[in-house]
Amino acid sequence: MKMYLISDNIDTKTGMRLAGVEGVIVHDIEEVSDALDIALKDREIGIILITEKIGKLIPDKIDDIKLNYHTPLIVEIPDRHGTGRTPDSITKYVREAIGLKI
Q1: What is the CATH number of the domain that holds 42?
Q2: How far is CA 97 from CA 61, 63, 88, in A?
Q3: Cα 72 from Cα 5, distance rounded (Å)
Q4: Full-prediction pTM beyond 0.90?
Q5: How many domains does the chain have?
Q6: For residue 53, what are the domain limits?
Q7: Cα-flanking dihedrals φ and ψ of residue 94, to 5°?
């Protein structure tokens, strides 16, 4: 099972490449969508790493894959500029998902 990176940043791709992860650099919605379609067709790819900035370009497609596909697992990662999430994003997610206030 392989991991594959979809990123908008050459530094992120270089770092992941040093760890043995292949990937692609994309910049617009069409490129992101095409790269994701290509990765989905490759049965050896079990995990797709996608930078948060790129993930924001096609959130509906990523949500569809997360909900309806068994593989691959989509993991949104921060790029070298850090995360775009608010400090309470995980607790907010839990609260919305199960209605439990932590």
Answers
A1: 3.40.50.10580
A2: 19, 14, 14
A3: 12
A4: no
A5: 1
A6: 2-98
A7: -65, -45
